[in-house]
Every structure is written in structure tokens, then in C-alpha cells.
Amino acid sequence: MDVTRRKIVQSLAAGVAAAVSGPTRAAFPSTIDDPPTNTSTVPQPIEGHLGADDPGPRNVILDRLNPDMLTPPPTDAGNMPNLKFSFSNVPMRLTEGGWARQVTQVDLPIATSIAGVDMRLKPGAIRELHWHPVAEWAYMLVGTAQVTCLDPQGRNFVGNVGVGDLWYFPPGYPHSIQALEEGCEFLLAFDSGNFS
Question: How far is CA 146 from CA 68, 86, 128, in A?
């Protein structure tokens, strides 16, 4: 049997398309801006002859983003832990220089080896020189920043990063991040689920 990645991807795509377009799937609107009172666009926990409508109160936008929570596939035994948690579900820490919000193992118990922070800095704002006992990876989402880092031998690094760029600071290395003209937003990942 000649199995290729292309054939596997084509088969998966066809299966997903059939599952989503099947006649027994809940109806979903083309946008999340449709009013939740329109019963033709509100997804319901109904699959064929199984389930019943949910009159609410409920978070319709969240239901639209997670249709398999309302109508799980028949192969779902219900014992898979949650593998996602939205930054939109955690409070922001507001400062004069911007904001930050984090997701740790407290929010997402499966995340034992990673914690994340979404951070925004205003133009010129700086995340002052600091260090921590865990490694830090980052991905730039918006704008530009200047990063600095010192190593144990006293050498320093200064560089500018922009959208799509990455950086890495090993555990214990002092570093800082300063937003440039237009400000910036970036995702940080730390190699400990409990790091805050």
C-alpha cells in the first residue's frame, strides 16, 4: 500500500469536510457577530436524535469556537484533558508601560512543563533588567523591541526584534526588553508550568 503524507492529509481534509457539512451537525453562522437570539445560528448540543436544546444562559461565542464540546465526535470518550486555555479568560495586569496576562498550570493543569505570558509594551516602555530560574522563549506578534542579555562571562548582547522574530534567554541570564517607536506585543514561554 502506497501511503504518502499527501494522501493522509487529503483523507483527513475530506473527513473533516464531510463531518462539518453533514446534515446532523449543529448549524454555525458565518461570523460570530450574529445575534445570539437568532436560533438558526446558535449552535445547540444536538446530534441527530441525541441531545436537546440549551436555552441558556450560556456563552454562545465560546460555543461557536468549540463546536466539538457541544456535539463531541462519537469516538470521544470524554477522558482527554483540556489542551487549550485562552489568554482572554485570564485577568490582565495593567501597568503604566502596558499590560500582561499569563496562563500557568493553575489555569491549564495539563501544562506541567510550560507557562505562557502575552505582553504588550507601549512605545518606549521597558521590561526592566531581570532574570529568573527558568528559561524564556519569545515570539514577536506586533511592533519592534530592543532586547538585551548578559551572560555569566560578563558579555552582553543588544539586538532589535520585529514581527515573527524569536528570542531565547537561558535560566539565570539577566535580560531586558524595550519597545521601540510603535510599541510591541509578544508571547513568552517558560519551561515550568508553575512559573509566574
Answer: 42, 27, 12
For residue 57, whether the previous peptide bond is cis, meaning omega lies within 30 degrees of 0, is yes
CATH 2.60.120.10 domain locations along the chain: 90-190
Q: Quick one: pLDDT at residue 180?
A: 98
Which region among 21-35, 36-50, 64-78 has the lowest average model confidence (pLDDT)? Answer: 21-35
Residue 50 forms beta bridges with which residues?
Answer: 47
Classify domain 90-190 at the CATH superfamily level.
Answer: Jelly Rolls (2.60.120.10)
CB 111 within 8 A of CB 136: no
Give the Cα separation of 174 and 42 in Å (integer): 50
* Beta-strand runs (E) in 8-135: 46-47, 50-51, 93-95, 98-103, 115-121, 126-130
DSSP type of residue 26? P
